[in-house]
Amino acid sequence: MVFTGFFDTLMVGKLGYESLAAAGICNGVFFFISVFPIGVSMAYATIVGILQGKGKTSNYRLLARDSFITTIGLSLVASAVIYGLVTHFSILGQTAQVQELAVPYMSLLMWSLLPMMVFFFAKNMCDGFSFTIGGMVITLTALVLNIFLNWVFIYGNLGSEAYGLNGAGYATILSRIFLAVSMLLVFFYSKRIPISWHQFIASFSESGRISFYKRIFAIGFPSGLQYFFEVAAFAGAAVMAGWLGAQELAAHNLAITLASVTYMFAGGISAGSSICVAKAYGNKNKENIKAYGYNGLKLGFIVTVLFALGFYVFNKPLAALFTSEPTVLKMGAELLIIAAIFQLSDGIQAIGVGILRGIEDVIMPSALIFIAYWIIAMPIGYYLSHYGSPDAVYYGVNGIWIGLCIGLTISAGFLSYRFYYLLRST
Known about the structure:
By secondary structure, the chain is mainly alpha-helical. The chain has 15 helices and no strands. It has one domain.
């Protein structure tokens, strides 16, 4: 999913830095709004893991039913919020050129939200049963499809009109519809998943006392807030970068796109660790809880060190993938050096959130993440980017990223300590 955004940005960047900036602000705001329902859907895998640990296999179909209804409801609400923002885009304070390009593109992204969330429903249910390869194959196939459709619609190949930035929007809609349909087929017809299509449909007519809405929101609501606070901070950073100018926003977009790609490797380790911890938590195996949590953190540390070195050593060539404009290239390369520093913190805090969710500890982590980003990181980023000498290394868009780096480090430290503390005290 993040690679889709990566290639969208890469291909849109060829149209000019205004299109690159518009794509950045739209994708940032889109995920700012959609990340809460995505975070809620992460609870589905955790609950499946806990049910497996407790041996309550007869309840799977009811969990699927309630999860699907929750997904559709949250999708409609999020789509309405995006529509409201499309009609009032000027409140983001972007330049006239960026706003002109961004509004129609944002409208197209709105239509891709529902199929994207249906995909996450089916994927997270499959992940809970430790069947992840189906989702991997589908997402990689959709990635290839999206790149091909970008080539057709953005540049006007194979007889298509050249839609520019909007072409990336059309490609996104079609690729996400493919994601939803394919993932549903895998979910309902794979032999690895103990829920059939007929069982799922029949569950809607059941009037039993068992439902999972309370459990979904008890775990999912704080989890959604965790992701919301984090993505909202990065979306806010994009807005602040846009206040500085289109070139600053373009540089921010290329750097955050690369950082998002590397983050998802840690995110994958986080999801896997969370499911394994949840199963151990379900059968009350403290030693396995500890082993899965500790080794998840160790594996995340190793992976993020490698990415940090890559960003530091290859900052200029990586930035040059997106733009040849000298000012944007220089700013983007500098941001990648800062991104190299917070790779470690970013990965560790992602895994910390996952393993704590596996033991149903979600409320305190949400509060910690809010404080780290919104009480500390964002004010520091704003202050550094606007005050001081223009020649200072922390001035401008660099200051925003230094603030984010501080927030990530604080979040990683608190979340890791909390996991150690909870296991030691039980």
